[in-house]
């Protein structure tokens, strides 16, 4: 058992993604990763967990779905369990009950939103979206807690088992601060914040299991300085053992994420076709349906096969 | 069967599980062998049925840190695998622990032996600290002894990273007798110096053959510490009166306590004093301790293989109250009785279970 400080997915794991081998299209697979990580992020913020705990959970989830299929393990189950496991690993313990409540709130909200929203005009829409939404946490002794607890306990074991008990996660946040210092960027307005946010966004993609942390740190600096139009010396990334191809590819993945989900920063620098609102909405809706359980994913794959 | 399951099965097949040699609150320990080589191992099976909220933190910490830490003076985690819903840790099999050695009145320690044990402990600890980890439960029965005499630090159930200086940590760690005064005063921000204090008390215990500061309660622990070493002044330990649980203690005069360990020699006395400074900032670090002249002065440390070892079979003993849970009990819940061992060699039968049980409880 050699020491594995920060395991990355192997090329064959990336090429033969278990969910895709089970018939899930690549695009949907990555949408579901994103949605599952969004759940972790939101629940983590609600529970006041530090970003390192949230990030660890998201990385564990990405790793998990390179050794397991979304048709065998429900995405919401793994998402809630990763967060629980990482809260233990990062010594930021949370109460299981609080975690379950947070997830039930998020799931109730998804249910409400996927019920369909109609409306015209931005302001009207904003008012209407939440109309009729309410969430009542279940009673203290409600069965639902026990059901969730069983799911979490058994999924936890699955995650540990399937990751071979390798739980070390090395995050790029501290690298970014050091690199910014070396590049004399710490006093540039918004740079550190933007790098930080980009690294957070990158967690919604599988980048953290493709590249070691120093590459991700460089990518966040590259993208930030491009967006803010800050010049840097040529080939600065050589200083940090990064190569242009890797970091540029990371930037592309992140820009793509923004475009696809309609969340690009308002810098006007990311060009490309004006996103089709309808398309984005459909994407959200489809993802929400599949997020629910492995059964939903299986059903979708079956229907998709029949169509084809 | 998919890849992950095959891999797990492959791991499980490497080991033969033998008889049960110990039983703890959250784990059972079995003797085992590696099929290919016949090497003896200890297999620690973590009970899942008993787990309240998923896998216990102590088990998680143990796996997490032992996977990363590899050093001749640290117990080796050879493998981890699962069978059904159980987690199995495969660990090096070690014969005995330092506590059993200290308690065995038939053994006589030379100063060179003590130096050898200290050097091995500090080497292991230096490696742990260098890698940004605090052990937080050093005591003689977590220092295991292999059949070739090598000392290995075990039990990482309370360990944690301390990379982030600003992170608040619990002060309810380290078995009381080895707990430094800053933790007894409730410090929430502390450093590697807590482990150094433990090593210091172990050093004195090796010389005296009885626990140096054996308090009955947390308050009593402070009292005993100050009684033995004198109550610290603001000058000895700047800022200690500002610690969260600081309370006035009876004033004890400065006491040349190192005179009671004069048998270890001048350098040894000096090392003990440097390890047991009240002010955590003034305590030696593991690496500076290793460079202390004690280790270069005469006599040279005994080679591990020649160190004294208990001849008799290991004797069973009851678990200490703060060991039964796998973590120390909180100060509010204890009743002031410390019963670390309740053995009497003649009444209890022989078995090798005791160490393993203790170790892995």
TrEMBL record, chain A:
Q: Which domain of life is it from?
A: Eukaryota
Q: Which residues form the Cyclin-like domain?
A: 38-161, 174-256
GO MF terms here are: cyclin-dependent protein serine/threonine kinase regulator activity; kinase activity
GO:BP terms for this protein?
regulation of transcription by RNA polymerase II
Keyword annotations: Cyclin, Kinase, Transferase
Q: Which family does it belong to?
A: Belongs to the cyclin family.
What PANTHER family would the database entry show?
Answer: CYCLIN
Task: State the protein's name.
Answer: Cyclin-dependent protein kinase regulator
Instruction: Specify the species.
Output: Tremella mesenterica
Automatic annotation (TrEMBL), chain B:
- Pfam families, per database record: Pkinase
Sequence ranges assigned to domain Protein kinase in this UniProt record: 15-295
Q: Which InterPro entries match?
A: CDK, CDK7, Kinase-like_dom_sf, Prot_kinase_dom, Protein_kinase_ATP_BS, Ser/Thr_kinase_AS
Q: Which GO terms describe its molecular function?
A: ATP binding; cyclin-dependent protein serine/threonine kinase activity; RNA polymerase II CTD heptapeptide repeat kinase activity
- Record's family? Belongs to the protein kinase superfamily. CMGC Ser/Thr protein kinase family. CDC2/CDKX subfamily.
Instruction: Return one Gene Ontology term, BP aspect.
Output: positive regulation of transcription elongation by RNA polymerase II
Residue segments, region Disordered: 321-345
Q: Which residues bind ATP?
A: 21-29, 44-45
One GO CC term, this protein: cytoplasm
Q: What is its EC number?
A: 2.7.11.23
| Protein name per UniProt | [RNA-polymerase]-subunit kinase
Please give the superkingdom of this protein's source: Eukaryota
Active site located where? 137
Q: Which organism is it from?
A: Tremella mesenterica
Q: Which UniProt keywords apply?
A: ATP-binding, Kinase, Nucleotide-binding, Phosphoprotein, Serine/threonine-protein kinase, Transferase
């Amino acid at each position: 058992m050699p020491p594995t400080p920060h395991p990355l997915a192997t090329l064959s794991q990336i090429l033969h993604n278990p969910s895709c081998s089970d018939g899930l299209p690549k695009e949907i697979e990555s949408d579901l990763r994103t949605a599952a990580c969004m759940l972790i992020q939101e629940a983590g913020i609600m529970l006041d967990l530090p970003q390192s705990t949230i990030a660890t959970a998201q990385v564990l989830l990405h790793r998990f779905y390179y050794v397991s299929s979304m048709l065998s393990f429900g995405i919401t189950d793994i998402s809630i369990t990763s967060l629980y496991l990482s809260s233990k690993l990062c010594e930021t313990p949370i109460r299981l009950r609080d975690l379950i409540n947070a997830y039930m709130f998020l799931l109730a909200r998804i249910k409400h939103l996927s019920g369909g929203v109609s409306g015209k005009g931005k302001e009207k829409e904003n008012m209407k979206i939440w109309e009729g939404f309410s969430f009542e946490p279940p009673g203290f002794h409600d069965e639902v807690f026990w059901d969730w607890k069983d799911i979490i306990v058994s999924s936890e074991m699955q995650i540990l088992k399937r990751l071979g008990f390798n739980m070390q996660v090395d995050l790029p946040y501290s690298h970014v601060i050091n690199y910014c210092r070396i590049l004399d960027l710490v006093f540039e307005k918004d740079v550190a914040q933007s790098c930080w946010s980009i690294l957070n966004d990158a967690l919604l993609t599988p980048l953290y299991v493709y590249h070691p942390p120093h590459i991700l740190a460089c990518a966040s600096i590259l993208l930030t300085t491009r967006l803010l139009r800050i010049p840097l010396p040529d080939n600065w990334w050589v200083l940090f053992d990064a190569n242009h191809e890797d970091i540029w590819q990371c930037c592309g993945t992140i820009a793509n994420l923004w475009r696809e989900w309609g969340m690009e920063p308002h810098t006007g620098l990311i060009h490309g076709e004006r996103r089709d609102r309808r398309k984005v909405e459909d994407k959200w809706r489809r993802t929400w349906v599949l997020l629910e359980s492995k059964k939903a994913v299986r059903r979708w794959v079956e229907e998709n096969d029949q169509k084809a | 069967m998919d890849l992950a399951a095959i891999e797990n099965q492959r791991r499980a097949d490497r080991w033969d599980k033998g008889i049960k040699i110990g039983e703890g609150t959250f784990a059972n320990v079995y003797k085992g062998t590696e099929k290919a080589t016949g090497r003896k191992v200890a297999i620690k099976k973590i009970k899942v049925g008993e787990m309240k909220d998923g896998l216990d933190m102590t088990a998680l910490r143990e796996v997490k840190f032992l996977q990363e830490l590899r050093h001749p003076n640290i117990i080796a985690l050879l493998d981890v695998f699962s069978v059904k819903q159980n987690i199995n840790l495969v660990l090096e099999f070690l014969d005995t622990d330092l506590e059993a050695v200290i308690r065995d009145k038939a053994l006589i320690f030379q100063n060179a032996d003590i130096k050898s044990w200290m050097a091995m402990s500090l080497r292991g600890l230096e490696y742990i600290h260098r890698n940004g980890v605090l052990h937080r439960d050093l005591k003689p029965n977590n220092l295991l002894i292999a059949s070739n005499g090598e000392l290995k630090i075990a039990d990482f159930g309370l360990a944690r990273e301390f990379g982030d200086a600003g992170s608040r940590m619990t002060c309810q760690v380290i078995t009381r007798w080895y707990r430094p005064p800053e933790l007894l005063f409730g410090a929430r921000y502390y450093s590697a110096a807590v482990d150094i204090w433990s090593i210091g008390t172990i050093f004195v215990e090796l010389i005296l053959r009885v626990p140096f500061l054996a308090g009955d309660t947390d308050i009593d622990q402070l009292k005993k510490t100050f009684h033995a070493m004198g109550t610290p002044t603001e000058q000895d330990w700047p800022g200690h009166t500002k610690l969260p649980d600081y309370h006035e203690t009876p004033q004890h005069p400065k006491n040349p306590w190192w005179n009671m360990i004069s048998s270890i020699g001048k350098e040894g006395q000096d090392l003990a004093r440097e390890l047991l400074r009240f002010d955590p900032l003034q305590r030696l670090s593991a690496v500076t301790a290793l460079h202390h002249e004690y280790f270069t002065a005469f006599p040279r440390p005994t080679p591990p293989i020649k160190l004294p070892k208990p001849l008799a079979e290991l004797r069973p003993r009851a678990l200490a109250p703060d060991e039964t849970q796998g973590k120390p009990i909180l100060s509010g819940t204890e009743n002031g009785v410390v019963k670390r061992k309740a053995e009497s060699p003649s009444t209890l039968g022989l078995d090798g279970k005791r160490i393993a049980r203790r170790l892995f409880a």
